C-alpha cells in the first residue's frame, strides 16, 4: 500500500482503508432488480472506479441502468465521471443513524420511478454507500419489506448472501427485524429526475499512467 507523503496516515485515513476490505460488487439479489457495491472512486485512483463497476456487472451477464448514491458527500466522484449509459440519483444519507422517513421515501420513489420506466427490460438498480453495506443494506431491505412484502429476516439474509458481507450496525438490524414498516404513501410520485452520466469513454483509454494503489478520500469514511 502506498501513501502520499512521509507521515503516517491519520486515524480517519486508516478507517477509510477499511474500504479495501470489502468486495467491490456483490451479486444481484435474486428475484429483485437490486445489486449492491462499495463506492466507486474517481478513475485516477485506479482501484475500483465506475468503469470497473460496469465491467464487473457485465461479467455477471447483467445490465446496470441506475446508480443510487447514498454517501453523505459529493467527494468520491461527479456526474462527469459516470458513464453515459447510466442514470444517477443522489440521496444524501447520514451514516450510523437509522435513515429517516424522508430518506426512505426518497429511496422508494427513485426505485419506483426507474422500475416503472424500465418495465420492459431487466436493467438493474445499483446502490452504494461507502462500503455498500449498512446504509445500502438497510434501504434495500426496507424497500423489500415495505413495498414487496418480504419477511424481514428473509430480506436481510438475501442481502447479506448477495453482497458477500453482512449488515453490521445493530440499530439498522433491530429496526429492520423488529421495527415498524414505513408508509408507502407518496412513493409513486416523482421526486427528482435521474441524471444521465456524462462520461463517453474510459479515461484510461486515452491516457495510460503508471498504476498506484491509493487509499480513497477520507470524508464520509466512517459513515458506511
TrEMBL record:
Possesses RNA 5'-triphosphatase and diphosphatase activities, but displays a poor protein-tyrosine phosphatase activity. In addition, has phosphatase activity with ATP, ADP and O-methylfluorescein phosphate (in vitro). Binds to RNA. May participate in nuclear mRNA metabolism. This is RNA/RNP complex-1-interacting phosphatase. CDD domains: DSP_DUSP11. InterPro entries: Dual-sp_phosphatase_cat-dom, mRNA_Capping_Enz/RNA_Phosphat, Prot-tyrosine_phosphatase-like, Tyr_Pase_AS, Tyr_Pase_cat, Tyr_Pase_dom, TYR_PHOSPHATASE_DUAL_dom. The keyword Nucleus applies. Residues 105-174 form the Tyrosine specific protein phosphatases domain. GO terms for molecular function: phosphoprotein phosphatase activity; polynucleotide 5'-phosphatase activity; RNA binding. Keywords: Hydrolase, Nucleus, Protein phosphatase, RNA-binding. Residues 29-185 form the Tyrosine-protein phosphatase domain. SMART domains: DSPc (SM00195), PTPc_motif (SM00404). GO terms for cellular component: nucleus.
Amino acid at each position: 500500500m502506498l501513501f502520499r507523503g512521509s507521515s503516517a496516515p491519520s486515524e480517519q485515513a486508516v478507517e477509510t482503508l477499511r474500504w479495501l476490505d470489502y468486495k467491490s460488487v456483490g451479486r444481484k439479489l435474486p428475484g429483485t432488480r437490486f445489486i449492491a457495491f462499495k463506492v466507486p472512486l474517481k478513475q485516477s485512483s485506479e482501484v475500483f472506479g465506475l468503469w470497473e463497476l460496469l465491467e464487473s456487472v457485465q461479467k455477471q451477464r447483467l445490465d446496470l441502468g441506475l446508480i443510487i448514491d447514498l454517501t453523505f458527500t459529493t467527494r468520491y466522484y461527479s456526474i462527469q465521471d459516470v458513464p453515459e449509459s447510466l442514470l444517477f440519483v443522489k440521496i444524501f444519507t447520514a451514516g450510523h443513524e437509522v435513515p429517516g422517513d424522508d430518506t426512505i421515501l426518497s429511496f422508494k420513489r427513485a426505485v419506483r420511478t426507474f422500475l416503472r420506466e424500465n418495465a420492459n427490460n431487466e436493467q438493474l438498480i445499483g446502490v452504494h454507500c461507502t462500503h455498500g453495506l449498512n446504509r445500502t443494506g438497510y434501504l434495500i431491505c426496507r424497500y423489500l419489506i415495505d413495498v414487496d412484502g418480504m419477511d424481514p429476516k428473509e430480506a436481510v439474509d438475501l442481502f447479506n448472501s448477495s453482497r458477500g458481507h453482512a449488515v453490521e450496525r445493530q440499530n439498522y438490524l433491530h429496526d429492520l427485524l423488529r421495527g415498524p414498516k414505513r408508509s408507502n404513501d407518496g412513493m409513486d410520485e416523482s421526486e427528482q429526475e435521474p441524471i444521465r452520466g456524462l462520461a463517453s469513454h474510459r479515461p484510461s483509454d486515452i491516457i495510460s499512467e503508471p498504476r498506484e494503489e491509493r487509499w480513497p478520500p477520507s470524508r464520509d469514511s466512517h459513515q458506511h
